[in-house]
Amino acid sequence: MSLLPAPLPVFSDRLTRRTVLSAAIAWSVPVLAQTLHTLRVGVPRDVADDYVRFLANRDLASLERFDGPYSRRDVMELAWLLREIKRQPKAPDTQLVRIDSYERLLASLRDGHIDAIGTSAWLADLETLGSGNVINSAAMIPKGTFVVGVYTSPRNEAALQTRTLQQLRVLRFACNSNWQLDWTTLRNLGIAPPIDVDTWSQMVTLVDSGRADALLAPFQPSTNAMELRFDGKTLVPIDGIAIALNGSRHLASSKNTAQGKWVASKVFPALAAQAKSGALRKAYEECGFHNPRTRAWTVF
C-alpha cells in the first residue's frame, strides 16, 4: 500500500458550504495519476500522518485493537476502512490523497477525483452531493450518539467552572461556520455567535491563547484527563458536561469511478455487518470516542 501524498492545489480564498457543496465549483482538481489497481482514499493530512504513526510496524490486515498512541476517532475510521479493503480478495493498492478542507474533500468525492473518503462525514452533507454521485455506507456513528467534549485551556479557570447551560452560553467558542452541525448546535443552545475560523489549528490556537474560551472536540483517549494535544498545545475538557450533535456519520465512495463502486460492493457490506455485531462500537470505545468516563456527565 502506497502512503505517498497526492498533492492538490492550494487555495487561499475561503469557500462556503453553499458554493462548494450545492453549486458548481469554481475551481477544478486535476485528474490524479493512478494505475488501474490504485484506490484513492481522501483524508485530512493530520489524520493520514497519525494513521502511519498509529499503525507503526503492525500488519494492517490482522489489526484487532484501535487503542494506543495516536489513536482517535478519525484515525480509527481510516484504519478500519483500510483494514477492510486489505482483507478483500484481490484488493487494489491504496493511495492516501491528503485534502485538508472538509468541503473540498466532499467535492473531490462527488467529482470522482477520489474513490472514497477515509473518515466519516455527516449524512446531511453527503446528501447534498447527489445520490447519482456517491454511495453511503451504513452509519458508522448512528444519529444521537455523537457526543463531544467542551475543551478549554487548563489555564482558563472561569471556563473550567462551567456546569450549567446558562454558564455555557457566556463562553466564547471557536468554530468553523462551514461545520454546519457544530455551528447550528451551538446557536440552538443559545450560545453567542462563535469566532469563525477556517482551520482546526486556528481553533486550538485561539483557545490556547485565551482569545476564545472553548471549542468542541471528541473526547481524547490519550490520558486519564482526556487531554487534547495538538501542535505543542494542550486543552482539557470541562468536567461534567458534554454536547450532542444530532446527526449520523457515514463513510462514502464515488459512484463515478470503478474503484468507488468496488468499495461500495465489497467493503461497505463488511462494515455494515460489523456495525450490527457491535464490533464497530467496540472500536469507537477503544479509540476513546465513546468514553465510559463521561457516561454520567450532563449532555446538552
Short summary:
This protein is α/β, with parallel strands linked by helices. The chain has helices at 17-22, 45-55, 73-86, 102-110, 123-127, 157-160, 165-168, 180-188, 200-209, 258-277, 279-286, and strands spanning 38-43, 93-98, 116-117, 121-122, 134-141, 146-152, 174-175, 195-196, 215-217, 228-230, 233-245, 249-254, 298-299.
Explain this structure.
The protein has 300 residues and is an alpha/beta fold. It has two domains: 17-141 and 249-299, Periplasmic binding protein-like II (D-Maltodextrin-Binding Protein, domain 2, 3-Layer(aba) Sandwich); 146-245, Periplasmic binding protein-like II (D-Maltodextrin-Binding Protein, domain 2), CATH 3.40.190.10. Helices cover 33% and strands 21% of the residues. It has eleven helices and 13 strands. The chain has helices at residues 17-22, 45-55, 73-86, 102-110, 123-127, 157-160, 165-168, 180-188, 200-209, 258-277, 279-286; strands spanning 38-43, 93-98, 116-117, 121-122, 134-141, 146-152, 174-175, 195-196, 215-217, 228-230, 233-245, 249-254, 298-299. The strands form four sheets. Strands 6, 9, 10, 11 and 13 form a five-stranded mixed beta sheet that branches. A three-stranded parallel beta sheet has the order 2-1-3. Helix 2 (45-55) packs across helix 3. The longest helix has 20 residues, at 258-277. It is globular, with a radius of gyration of 19 Å.
